[in-house]
From TrEMBL, chains A, B:
The keyword Zinc applies. InterPro entries: DNA_Rcmb_RecR (IPR000093), Rcmb_RecR (IPR023627), Rcmb_RecR_Znf (IPR015967), TOPRIM_dom (IPR006171), TOPRIM_RecR (IPR034137). Belongs to the RecR family. A zinc finger (C4-type) spans 60-75. This is Recombination protein RecR. May play a role in DNA repair. It seems to be involved in an RecBC-independent recombinational process of DNA repair. It may act with RecF and RecO. The keyword Zinc applies. Keywords: DNA damage, DNA recombination, DNA repair, Metal-binding, Zinc, Zinc-finger. Residues 83-178 form the Toprim domain. It holds the Pfam family Toprim_4. Signal peptide: none annotated. PANTHER family: RECOMBINATION PROTEIN RECR.
Length: 202, 202
């Protein structure tokens, strides 16, 4: 009865919002209603912004982040250090490191970490392109800026093995990463400390 | 730096999502990224569904709920009892009562409750139209199905005063409403019990 009552257009909005992370069916109904009540101020602008983003934002073919230009703003900034690539799990980690402002090299977005539990194997990660990039003569160091979780550190060791044959220094963030902590949750000072005191992988 | 890095299109999506209830800046970034990663499966469908909803869904000029037709599906269903109007705080309360399935009369959406703290006075509620509807000769009973909160009960008494001069019975949901409980959180059985044992306002 509720489904008929709500109508297919609103039901579709509720169903799609309910697929977003952290939003269950009840909060999806609340969000949908909140949008309907703010049709001109929020509903229409959000519809347009999402459509605009879908049309313009693409993945950077070099590092894998999202931007409206390819290569992305970071990859195409002339002053940045070309000799070092910082490998992160996902885009918010790049954003967090850029907010911290202590790093001025290149990035590489893995798109995840290896996880037996979640069924994430090496083939699901952006790894082949990392090996290719790491083999370029100007690249001297790869920083594995992965979370201090079991999966993050497993992934760091796996990447280290994959790059072993190359003439690059492999380091990881060290001091400051709380055990079990996720990179994206850390404050700028902690991230900067971890970046400064990075050390070679054992 | 982070704002320049993200780009205006994505920043706009993040800002708008951050205005939704229950979503802070951090979860807005997570949701935006989740959408970008599911461009065809979620981002584009959601943009279209929101645009579609904005174009088609309107408020019912009779009861105030949302629907694609005006009068809404509930108001225009022929079999429903025309002699009773159930007054609810907001649209999800109508949905909850329809899910419970124990009520087959008319509805009236107030759009809020009186609240000194939140600065909600009578002029912000859908009250004038309630008084007009209640004055129609076929209307015999007004059920005040408001939450058992201080604001809800204050509003019930205010409405009761406004309708005092009319020849209608005014009742409210009674048994089953836990003190401080919000209508939208109750299970169907509790709602049905409360509806069945409604009683005249003191
Ligand atoms: Zn890039
Ligand atoms: Zn209606």
């Amino acid at each position: 009865m509720s489904r008929n009552l709500i109508g297919p257009e609103l039901q579709r909005v509720i169903d799609l919002i309910g697929k977003l992370p952290g939003l269950g069916p009840r909060s999806a109904r609340r969000v949908a209603l909140y949008l309907l009540k703010r049709r001109d101020a929020l509903l229409i602008p959000l519809a347009e912004a999402l459509s605009d983003a879908a049309g313009k934002i693409t993945r950077c073919s070099v590092c894998g982040t999202y931007d409206t230009v390819d290569p992305c703003t970071v990859c195409s900034t002339p002053g940045r250090d070309q000799s070092v690539i910082c490998v992160v799990q996902d885009v918010p980690d790049l954003w967090a490191l850029e907010r911290a402002g202590s790093y001025r090299g290149q990035y590489h977005i893995l798109g995840g970490v290896l996880s037996a539990l979640d069924g994430v194997g090496p083939e699901k990660l952006n790894l082949d392109s990392l090996v290719q990039r790491s083999a370029q003569p100007e690249v001297k160091e790869i920083i594995l800026a992965l979370s201090a979780t079991v999966d993050g550190q497993t992934t760091a060791h796996y990447i280290s093995d994959r790059l072993e044959h190359l003439d690059v220094r492999i380091s990881r963030l060290a001091q400051g990463l709380p055990v079990g902590g996720e990179l994206d949750h850390l404050d700028d000072g902690t991230l900067t400390a971890a970046m400064m005191s990075r050390r070679g992988l054992d």
